[in-house]
Amino acid sequence: MSSVPAAENVLRLLTYLAAHRRPVAASAVARDLGLPRSSVYHLLAVASERGFVVHLPAERRYALGPAAFELSGGYASQQPLARLGRPLLAQLVDRLRESGHLAVLHGADVLYLVEERAPRRPSLVSDVGVRLPAHLTASGRAMLAALSPAQRRAAVPLPLVTRHGDPMSPARLHAMLATARRTGLAVEDGEVTPGLASMGVAVLDRAGWPAAALAITFRASDDAPRNEIASQLTATARELERRLFGS
Amino acid sequence: MSSVPAAENVLRLLTYLAAHRRPVAASAVARDLGLPRSSVYHLLAVASERGFVVHLPAERRYALGPAAFELSGGYASQQPLARLGRPLLAQLVDRLRESGHLAVLHGADVLYLVEERAPRRPSLVSDVGVRLPAHLTASGRAMLAALSPAQRRAAVPLPLVTRHGDPMSPARLHAMLATARRTGLAVEDGEVTPGLASMGVAVLDRAGWPAAALAITFRASDDAPRNEIASQLTATARELERRLFGS
DNA sequence: CGATAGTGTCTGATATCCCAGACAATGGAG
DNA sequence: CTCCATTGTCTGGGATATCAGACACTATCG
């Protein structure tokens, strides 16, 4: 425990609320975070005053407030990745008429920073600010492929499971990542959303570390223009690297 | 000051970082938040451990981290507005081929929750998680128009200024809001971004309070299909009301 | 290069925050 | 309706978090 426990606990509270798809009861917070109930009320009170939490008295529950949401705007401004990546991704999506996103690796997951939806395409499961396990997504695989073996071991938790909780073979992931390393392209086909496939390309920094990945999501049909997508996606990732890191 | 000052201060820290477009030095945090320097380092340390802040040693500055960004995903999930509004806005944007957004009123500002960019349209100034003064935007005007006079007085700070810092007449805003009230439509023309205009319609709850506004941004030319935009926008706002609040 | 200002880390005494617990209010089930 | 569980609010003493300050390190400027 840190030297500023109240500060740490309020951050744990926000993280907890963000992980829940529904507003949460104070007693659940106390139980799940292992904090005294009265302390939780204090934290909720101060977080409410500051706009990070809203109390829903009718439901006797708490949810994140506008100030929590607003951090995303600040993050996006401070992060060159999102700021420089967005217009490039927008152009790519306009050209290909398929939806795309920019994601970063965060622990064992990918975190989606930018999403560009193409016309007549559904909103993606990869909503901004949402996480998915890296090993299940094209973006995640592209980035994992670019890590050193030690980094990869640290990033990927065992045992591996699919999106539905079934076991997944490490050898299968290993083979996919080897292919991604060789071709520069990572793929995902129907594993996140049936009927949809994705291609991902890592955006590497000067040290070869995957700072991000760009991906395009398309219908998994036989006539999908995979070669076109692959070459445009790769060119866009290279351009983003150039803008971010110089070349 | 609250009964949990460390919790409050770490939230103030996050708010401060979110308000800065660039990473920030610890000494600036201490100075501007009026906190002891050593306390700031403690807060930054715990926020870093929890992923809410990242330290950029090369610049000797601090920025928001991925956990801060991730709160936006949680917020969007918990908020029916964003969840139910996004697909409706997506359809509207696909139909009109113009970009649109969904915003809420927060203090004197609008806060953008959802943005849908149309093909070949620029990324909007109204990036998600960003604020603009309500009185300058179509969404904000639509919502201000729907407030009671007392609520409006509380929401709109005087003196009014334009985006470039010039004075703006309260009588002019008053006239615009009266028109918006009469027609159900609020407009903004070149004031946020030269050459671009927006139309906004408020989404009212059962008590007639503006829970949100939908807006469409388009080129401010004489041949813009304003009537088409107006009727589609209004229909979408009514549908969102129906889905959120029943009718 | 040296001087200076700023950054980061650490310390410890004392003021204050945190926790356990009590009580009031509310909601739901039988 | 009563009973019980849950939610929300409040209290106060002792453990500990906080603040002022010291020191080491780093970057910049003349």
Structure description:
The structure is a homodimer of 247-residue chains. Chain A is an alpha+beta fold and 247 residues long. Helix content of chain A is 46%, strand content 20%. Chain A has helices at 5-18, 26-33, 37-49, 66-78, 80-96, 138-145, 149-155, 170-183, 226-245; strands at residues 53-56, 61-64, 99-106, 109-116, 131-133, 186-189, 196-204, 210-219. The longest helix of chain A is centred in the C-terminal third of the chain and has 20 residues, at 226-245. Chain A binds a DNA duplex (30 and 30 nucleotides) through α3.
Summary of the model, kept short:
The structure is a homodimer of 247-residue chains. Chain A has helices at residues 5-18, 26-33, 37-49, 66-78, 80-96, 138-145, 149-155, 170-183, 226-245, and strands at residues 53-56, 61-64, 99-106, 109-116, 131-133, 186-189, 196-204, 210-219.
- What is the fourth-level CATH superfamily of the largest domain in chain A? GAF domain
Residues in β-strands, percent of chain A? 15-25%
SS field, number of helical segments of chain A: 9
- The separation of the N and C termini of chain A measures 43 Å
- State mean pLDDT of chain A (0 to 100 scale): 90
Low-confidence stretches of chain A: none
Helix content of chain A: 40-55%
Q: Give the H and E element order of chain A.
A: HHHEEHHEEEHHHEEEH
Q: How many structural units, i.e. domains of chain A?
A: 2
Structural class of chain A: alpha+beta
Shape of chain A: globular
Strands in their spatial order, largest beta sheet of chain A: 5-4-3-8-7-6
Largest sheet of chain A: 6 strands, antiparallel
Considering residues with a beta carbon less than 8 A from a beta carbon on another chain, report the largest interface and each chain's count: A-B, 68 and 67 residues
Which architecture of the largest domain in chain A does the CATH hierarchy give at level 2?
2-Layer Sandwich
- Give me the CATH fold name of the largest domain in chain A: Beta-Lactamase
The CATH C-level class name of the largest domain in chain A? Alpha Beta
**Rg calc of chain A:** 20 Å
